[in-house]
């Protein structure tokens, strides 16, 4: 009975020892075997692997791309403008041994990597203007940050795969100041345009008044010329008519005088019998002017 129990216990111990001697590496993992605090092996092949039980410790690291999202920070650009910038990065643990020797934990790795990316970003943005981030030059800036981050992260056993600028905004107080300055500038331009428009309106009005005066003067001169020519022509016609038949012309003029004198008078008109106005009312005067 004691021998059977001892054999069972020995079998269980061997099974436990076998279990403790095996470890599994997944396809998305890589393992570092540490023996009594000293790294002895890096295992990248997926599957079951052996280790020394109770002596070896296995540390697993992810082989996939890992995210890194540093917090929002203020950066002074080359034109002394402040900008709130937030980036994101993707990195991969490519050398578990260097990673274990330099940073050991994931939190420490993230902290150092954030400092590396932030320092590279500050140096790159400190040499450019704000307008560069709004143009195709932005890709060149991120490429500079990426290359510098790759070089600084390599001794940590980390390969930085990508760095991108997620946000690049002006601080609220700076945005308000810029908005106020733009508003005042637009108001100044509006005043200048209104003043210029008023000046142009005055010039146009003055030119129109001048042209109107010139046109009226020319029209009046032309009308006076035409009227004088008409009067001269009328006098010529009157003179020709008078020369043909002076008595009839005097009679016609007398008739016009009668019509004008009697048109606005009362029905009763008192005249002397010897008045010139009555000489054509006699029968002798009528015979004289009869053709």
Descriptive overview:
With 291 residues, this protein is α+β, with helices and mostly antiparallel strands. The chain has 3 domains: 40 residues, no CATH class; 109 residues, 2-Layer Sandwich (Tetrahydropterin Synthase, Chain A); 60 residues, no CATH class. It has 7 helices and 9 strands, in the order αββββββββαααβααα. The strands form 3 sheets. Strands 6, 7, 8 and 9 form a 4-stranded antiparallel sheet that branches. Helix 3 crosses helix 4 and helix 5 crosses helix 6.
Keywords:
291 residues; alpha+beta; Tetrahydropterin Synthase, Chain A; 3 domains; 7 helices; 20% strand; rod-shaped; disordered C terminus
Question: Which series of helices and strands comes N to C?
Answer: HEEEEEEEEHHHEHHH
Helicity level:
55-70%
Low-confidence stretches: 286-291
Distance between the termini: 185 Å
Estimated structural class: alpha+beta
Which word captures the global form? rod-shaped
Number of helices: 7
What is the CATH C-level name of the largest domain? Alpha Beta
Fourth-tier CATH superfamily name of the largest domain: Band 7 domain
> Could you say how many structural domains there are in total?
3
Roughly how many Å is the radius of gyration? 58 Å
Share of residues in strands: 15-25%
Overall mean pLDDT score?
A: 82
- In CATH, the architecture of the largest domain is 2-Layer Sandwich
**Quick one: biggest sheet?**
4 strands, antiparallel
Number of strands: 9
| CATH fold-type name of the largest domain | Tetrahydropterin Synthase, Chain A
């Amino acid at each position: 009975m004691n021998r059977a129990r001892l054999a069972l216990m020995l079998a269980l111990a061997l099974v436990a020892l076998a279990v403790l001697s095996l470890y599994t590496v997944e396809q998305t993992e890589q393992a570092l075997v540490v023996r009594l605090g000293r790294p002895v092996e890096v295992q990248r092949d997926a599957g079951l692997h052996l280790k020394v039980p109770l002596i070896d410790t296995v540390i697993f690291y992810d082989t996939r791309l890992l995210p890194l999202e540093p917090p929002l920070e203020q950066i002074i650009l080359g034109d002394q403008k402040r900008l709130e910038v937030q980036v994101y990065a993707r990195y991969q643990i490519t050398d578990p041994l260097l990673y274990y020797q330099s940073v050991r934990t994931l939190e420490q790795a993230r902290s150092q990597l954030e400092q590396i990316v932030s320092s590279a970003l500050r140096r790159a943005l400190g040499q450019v203007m704000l307008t560069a981030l709004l143009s195709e030059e932005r890709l060149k800036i991120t490429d500079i940050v990426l290359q510098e981050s790759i070089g600084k992260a390599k001794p940590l056993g980390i390969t930085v795969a990508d760095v991108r600028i997620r946000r690049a905004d002006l601080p609220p107080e700076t945005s308000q100041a810029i908005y106020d300055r733009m508003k005042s500038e637009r108001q100044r331009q509006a005043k200048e345009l209104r003043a210029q428009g008023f000046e142009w309106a005055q010039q146009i009005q003055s030119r129109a008044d001048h042209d109107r005066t010139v046109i009226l003067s020319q029209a009046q001169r032309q009308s006076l010329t035409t009227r004088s020519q008409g009067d001269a022509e009328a006098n010529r016609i009157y003179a020709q008519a008078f020369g043909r038949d002076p008595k009839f012309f005097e009679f016609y003029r007398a008739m016009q005088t009668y019509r004008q004198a009697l048109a606005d008078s009362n029905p009763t008109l008192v005249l002397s019998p010897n008045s010139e106005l009555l000489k054509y009312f006699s029968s002798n005067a009528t015979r004289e002017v009869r053709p």
